[in-house]
Amino acid sequence: MFVMELSYTAPLESVEEQMDAHIAWLDGYYAAGVFLASGRKVPRDGGVILAGGVSRAEIERIATEDPFSVAGVCDYTITEFIATKTSADLSTVRENPVT
């Protein structure tokens, strides 16, 4: 599973110009079952996406497709983790680590 942290690198006005395209991009990956949750950080200097079911290389490629990335208004930090415990709603993405 991945935590995709977005940090804005441009004024909020520039981010807002890309928002409709960003939301459409999010919707596509929600429909594909890759994105599990997303939202703005507080304070509003970026956002966070929780994703799963794909490889590290794939999630990095997905991040480059974000209209925010294409427009150069954000940078991504991607953290991979093994979700060994989840809520019942996220049980499908729970992982059993190899020891």
Q: Can you tell me about this structure?
A:
The protein has 99 residues and is an alpha+beta fold. It contains four helices and four strands. It has a four-stranded antiparallel beta sheet with strand order 2-3-1-4, with helices on one face. The two termini are 17 Å apart.
What is the compact description of this entry?
The chain is of the alpha+beta class and 99 residues long. Helix content is 33%, strand content 26%.
Distance between the termini: 17 Å
Strand numbers in spatial order across the main sheet: 2-3-1-4
- Helix/strand/pairing category: alpha+beta
Helix content: 25-40%
Largest sheet: 4 strands, antiparallel
Q: What sequence of helices (H) and strands (E) makes up the elements?
A: EHHEEHHE
Binned strand content: 25-35%
Residue-averaged pLDDT: 94
- How many strand elements? 4
**Uncertain residue segments:** none
Topology at a glance:
Elements: E1 2-8, H1 12-17, H2 19-31, E2 35-40, E3 46-51, H3 56-65, H4 67-70, E4 74-80
Antiparallel strand pairs: 1-3, 1-4, 2-3
Task: Spell out the key features of this protein.
4 helices, elongated, 99 residues, alpha+beta, four-stranded antiparallel sheet
